[in-house]
Amino acid sequence: MSSASHSKSTDSMTMALLTILRMRTFVALILVFCFFAIAAPNFLSAANVLIMSKHVALNAFLAIGMTFVIITGGIDLSVGSIVGLCAMVAGWLVLYGIDPGFGWSIQFNTIEICLIVMAVGIAVGVINGLLITRLSVAPFIATLGTLYVARGAALLLSNGGTFPNLTGNAEYGSDSFRVLGAGEVIGIPVSIWLMVVVALISAYVARRTPLGRHIYAVGGNERGAALSGVKVNRVKMAVYMFSGFCAALVGLIIASQLQAAHPATGETFELNAIAAAVLGGTSMSGGRGRIIGTVIGAFVIGILSDGLVMMGVSSFWQTVIKGVVIIAAVVIDQAQQKLQAKMVMQQQAAQQR
Q1: Would you call 172 helix, strand, or coil by DSSP?
Q2: What is the pTM of this model?
Q3: Which of 270, 268, 289, 271 is CA-nearest to residue 333?
Q4: Where does the chain cross the membrane (predicted)?
């Protein structure tokens, strides 16, 4: 075989391997789906598919927000605690409203409750953004701190107790609160419709708007982006605010689904969100990621979690498996980057010859 033929054969194999690596999330989705369809009883039943879809939607919300944060080169460890805090705020508002201390209280309807809770989530995102942009605190440390603060605030709201029976009050217009988590439109849960809307808008912003291009630019080369006129701090503020908004939405949906709020809600949710984003092709070094990949990654994590539960696998082993998935996703991502760099070098060498 001539050297030219050998080179073409090697290039073809490299391209094929690179294509497989790029499609790894979709391949993983097919593999886990087929495995649990065979191994787990009633996995494909309509009831289980419906429940699993709701779980996937919750993880997808957090993972989409996390994707934007990671693309900028950051991380948001506080999203799980924001979920718990926002669920508790929603529970407080549904049950008690706001008591100014004059012997009367201010009550809110469902829309007002949702807007207030979303504002709380965005406010925590603002705090994260300010710590990172104004005080130059590393994203890991800043969001780790707000993780504890938000969780502590959730516990303080009820002294560690639960807000039960969040059915709302028809007199105040809050009786429709349950629709957010338990309602359906043409047989599909409202939470899934919301996931589709958020995913489509996020994908459009990422690929078709100046903000999206700036997000990728900041993650790819922050210094270069700043020199080219990108408002780096504003971009970072925007992604952390959006991550807080997504977490607030999850807190609302969970409180509505369960018709109860507990301060421990959302614990370890940040790990699932990071896993879905990384598995979907988002680079932990920043500058690269796709919303569609993240949504597929959320499906992989959701199917994996529910499938393991249906098979009776211990929750301890489930945690181990998720950790292995995160590590494997990062290793594969690094392999893909090295392979792409190698292909570029080979192409440049061929052009020079």
Answers
A1: coil
A2: 0.90
A3: 289
A4: 56-75, 82-98, 110-131, 138-157, 186-206, 237-255, 291-310
